[in-house]
Specification:
The protein is mainly β and 142 residues long. The chain has one helix spanning 110-116, and strands at 7-10, 19-20, 23-24, 28-36, 39-43, 54-56, 63-69, 75-77, 80-86, 91-99, 102-105, 108-109, 117-125. The strands form 3 sheets. A 6-stranded antiparallel beta sheet has the order 6-5-4-1-7-8, with no helix packed on it. It has a 5-stranded antiparallel beta sheet with strand order 12-11-10-9-13, covered by helices on one side. A hairpin with a 2-residue loop joins strand 4 and strand 5. The longest helix has 7 residues, at 110-116.
């Protein structure tokens, strides 16, 4: 079984141009990531504008799809903030991170996360909703 390879990132302001191939600065785009003359871009497959589907993105915001959806069918990406419950009803809220070759939810690696946590739900991401993590640095360790 193969998982879908997909990335997302926020469009970046281009000097002298308020739009990035028709998208305003800071809008999420989804697709394949690549580098073009030193700029990180995402090629989004659009049916309405096939000639304008490469967007320059802020490299800090690029994250990969984990291959897992939450309880509502929302795709879970790296840097999403996920609320999940153990079998015993204990609630945990952490951002999804990628390190050491796997995704992590707090101190749990991806296999442990999928095994131990049920009722997973994306409640935001570290870029748009850092306040969901609380704490001095909002729980964000890059």
């Amino acid at each position: 079984m193969m998982r879908e390879i997909l990335f997302r990132g926020k469009t970046k302001a281009i000097t002298g141009c308020p739009y990035n191939n028709g998208k305003p600065d800071g809008e999420w785009v989804f697709g394949y990531v690549f580098s073009d003359l030193g700029a990180m871009k995402i090629r989004q497959h659009e049916t309405d504008r096939p000639e304008c589907n490469d967007y320059e993105v802020d490299p800090e915001t690029v994250g990969q799809y984990t291959g897992v959806n939450d309880k509502n069918g929302t795709k879970i990406f790296e840097e999403d903030i996920v609320q999940a419950f153990t079998r015993y009803g204990t609630k945990h809220i952490y951002p999804i991170k990628y390190r050491n070759g796997t995704f992590w939810f707090g101190n749990w690696n991806w296999i442990e996360f999928l095994d131990r946590f049920q009722f997973r739900e994306v409640i935001g991401n570290i870029f748009d909703n850092p306040e969901l993590l609380g704490g001095e640095n909002n729980g964000i360790n890059r």
